[in-house]
Amino acid sequence: MDKQSIFDAVQQIFRDNFDDEELVITRETCADDIEDWDSLEQINLLTAMEKKFGLKFKLDDVRGLENVGDLLDLIERLTA
Fold first, then answer.
1. Which segments constitute the Carrier domain (predicted)?
2. pLDDT tens-digit map of 9-49
3. Cα atoms in the Cβ-side hemisphere of radius 13 Å centred on 35
4. Is residue 1 very low, low, confident or very high in pLDDT (cuts 50, 70, 90)?
5. Where are the domains of the chain?
6. Are 56 and 17 in contact (CB under 8 A)?
7. Rounded to whole angstroms, how far apart are CA atoms 33 and 36?
């Protein structure tokens, strides 16, 4: 999967999880930027991404994620 395809899929996961078709994320988007993005929502997002990309994140993989860009890089690394 190329970077744009990964980004588009992650964008749609965010829209679905936050029930907001107008939501636009960037690589710099972080939990502070989205009102409802709390620890439970973080788990929901990661679970949806595992399902979409056929991955299983390890705690060490996700512990240091600071923004969407970090998440995109992780998905790209794990799907390569």
1. 1-79
2. 999 999 999 999 999 999 999 999 999 999 999 999 999 99
3. 3
4. confident
5. 3-79
6. no
7. 9
Q: Give the C-alpha separation, 34 to 59, whole Å.
A: 23
Other C-beta atoms closer than 10 Å to the C-beta of 78 total 16
Question: How is residue 17 written in tokens?
Answer: 């999880």
Distance of CA 12 to the CA centre of its chain: 10
pLDDT tens, residue by residue, 44-57: 999 999 999 999 99
Q: Are 79 and 6 in contact (CB under 8 A)?
A: yes
Residue reference for tokens 């588009």: 8
The amino acid sitting at 69 is G
